[in-house]
């Protein structure tokens, strides 16, 4: 009688886990379908419309968005279907190949690339407030420098993960059903450089965005309330940065405690957090930067739109702000 009761409880727990996993997958797929088609269309417009040829900050946004898209896709493949009975043999085959190691590298490479480009986007906004003419003359140099540094740092911090022995471990659920669980064969400490870089960069980016909003508020007070100064995109960057920092912090905490917690905590929560982290930036940008949204759809250059300039009463200096 006891064995039958335990078996029934195990079956119910496994069934509940499977249902939660299905709901989690549905949320992730819906978020991706809603976000990435319009996002990819936006990136395509930026890269192909001739009027955007010299809008290098937008191209940095494109690189950031592509990094988010890669994070999302790899996360779905790497984590989301490991508990599904129908995919058991696929992950059984994957665990004997170097493909999981490549997934692990690309996940942290894309994450580090995303955070590094996010930092350079925020830094650009801050420097444009302080040194508008210098930044305008050196827009291409700043873009080239930002891309180069972002790729180099992302590669350096993620490369050690090739040697961490990341793979899938076969586990038995309560009802005897077999599933897989992502784990490290050895040298889990090799993920520390990427984790440290991502957390540090997210924190610094948050500080820069706070400084941007403070500076904008000071300039508004100096110029007067009747100025045409628009700070909504900068507030959008700040809100996005706060959300991203909190999401990434929670994700790091879950990764730290997961050896001491049930495996489903990691497999259910981490993919959902990654989905939020990769979809929130695009919608905060589009939601707050109304001029950018209209510019993308109309295919007109940013500098032609009056509402996207900040006019200083003394020397009439224009700052493009989206």
- Averaged pLDDT, please? 75
Based on the coordinates given, report the CATH architecture: Up-down Bundle
Q: Work out the helicity level.
A: over 70%
Broad shape:
elongated
Main sheet makeup = 2 strands, antiparallel
Tally the structural domains. Answer: 1
Poorly predicted ranges: 1-13, 304-322
The CATH topology: Rhopdopsin 7-helix transmembrane proteins
List SSEs in N-to-C order: HHHHHHEEHHHHEE
The N- and C-terminal alpha carbons lie at a distance of 69 Å
Q: Kindly report the name of the CATH homologous superfamily.
A: Rhodopsin 7-helix transmembrane proteins
Strand order of the largest sheet: 1-2
Structural class: mainly alpha
Q: What value does the Rg take, in angstroms?
A: 23 Å
CATH class: Mainly Alpha
Give the percentage of residues in beta strands.
Answer: 5-15%
What distinguishing features does this structure have?
single chain, 322 residues, mainly alpha, Rhopdopsin 7-helix transmembrane proteins, two-stranded antiparallel ribbon, two-stranded antiparallel sheet, 4 strands, disordered N terminus, disordered C terminus
Offer a quick outline of the entry:
The protein is mainly alpha-helical and 322 residues long. It contains 10 helices and 4 strands; from the N terminus they run H-H-H-H-H-H-E-E-H-H-H-H-E-E.
Question: How would you describe what is shown here?
Answer:
The chain has about 325 residues and is mainly alpha-helical. The protein has a single domain, classed as Rhodopsin 7-helix transmembrane proteins (Rhopdopsin 7-helix transmembrane proteins), CATH 1.20.1070. It is about 70% helix and about 5% strand. The chain is built from 10 helices and 4 strands. The protein has helices at about 1-50, 55-80, 90-95, 100-130, 130-135, 140-160, 190-225, 230-255, 265-290, 290-300; strands at about 165-170, 180-185, 310, 320. α7 (about 190-225) runs antiparallel to α8.
